[in-house]
Design a protein that fits this description.
By secondary structure, the protein is mostly helical. Helix content is 78%, strand content 0%.
């Protein structure tokens, strides 16, 4: 067993979940930000569940000698059950890929100085995701490390900045689920399941059978806890009105002017590229087998 396998698998798992953790902030609002103080126990539960899933996948892959999630299902469940699991897993990955590709296209429409920037953004994201798929075992963990460091620093800086964001909205925002522990538990488990399914194939391929399940799970859960905690603190800085926005991170980054705009747009784009790459890799694993 090598320590490198633990880090590769954990960072690959975090890279696969980048779009929901370090993107525009909308996913953070849906799963955690709207819960008020109950978001913090929700973050703890989601991180623990995600780490448990990553560790379990690493353990099963090492036992079965599988380097793809599709191969793991076939060897552990048999062909019949593997086909059923494969259909549902592939459909979920396809939906995630479409959402990530659309989000990347929207970032391209906002930043690229060309006509049809939306299509250019989608094409660029698709090309980068395909390149990551070709060298996923080497590139995805490093990409996960970079996006974790940059995303954590970005969210921490937005949370620390004491200046209030400028919001040109009228009305009141009353989060109906604020303080609800049952809602926090349900949304946290849904969040962990979504990201765990997207990250399963990346964990299989990047662990190389050398990852210790417990350490992989602890590293994955700790990385997600750090990302979600800083993102939640970032949302808290903007107040309840921020929860009504489609991209809550934008008005917070707008306090930094043009630099904040480019940082926010670039981070959202590359986070969606990483998630798109993980989803594409999982789909190719099922189609190839």
């Amino acid at each position: 067993m090598s320590k490198g396998g633990n880090w590769r698998a954990a960072l690959a798992a975090l890279a696969a979940s980048a779009a929901t953790g370090c993107g525009s902030g909308r996913a953070l609002v849906i799963f955690f930000g709207q819960l008020g103080w109950a978001s913090w126990p929700g973050i703890a539960l989601a991180s623990a569940a995600f780490g448990l899933m990553a560790g379990l996948v690493a353990r099963l892959c090492a036992r079965a000698g599988a380097d793809y999630f599709a191969a793991l299902c076939r060897r552990s469940l048999g062909r019949g059950c593997a086909h059923v699991v494969g259909v549902f897993h592939a459909l979920m990955l396809a939906a995630v890929a479409v959402v990530a590709l659309t989000n990347a296209g929207e970032a391209g429409a906002l930043t690229l100085p060309v006509k049809r920037g939306f299509l250019w953004g989608m094409g660029l994201a698709l090309a980068l995701a395909a390149l990551l798929c070709l060298w996923e075992r080497q590139a995805l963990p490093w990409a996960g490390l970079i996006i974790l460091a940059v995303g954590a620093a970005f969210c921490a800086a937005l949370a620390i900045d004491p200046r209030p964001p400028r919001l040109y909205l009228r009305g009141d925002v009353v989060p109906a689920l604020a303080g609800s522990l049952p809602a926090a538990a349900g949304l946290a488990l849904c969040y962990a399941a979504l990201n765990g399914c997207v990250a399963a194939d990346a964990v299989c391929r990047c662990s190389d059978g050398s990852a210790r399940p417990v350490r992989t799970g602890l590293l994955s859960g700790a990385g997600m806890a750090l990302t979600l905690a800083l993102g939640n603190a970032m949302l808290a800085r903007g107040g309840p009105m921020l929860l009504a926005l489609a991209a809550p991170a934008v008005p917070l980054a707008a306090r930094w002017g043009l630099v904040g705009f480019w940082l926010c747009a670039s981070l959202a784009f590359f986070c969606n590229v990483l998630t798109l790459s993980a989803a594409m890799g999982g789909l190719m694993g099922w189609l190839g087998r």
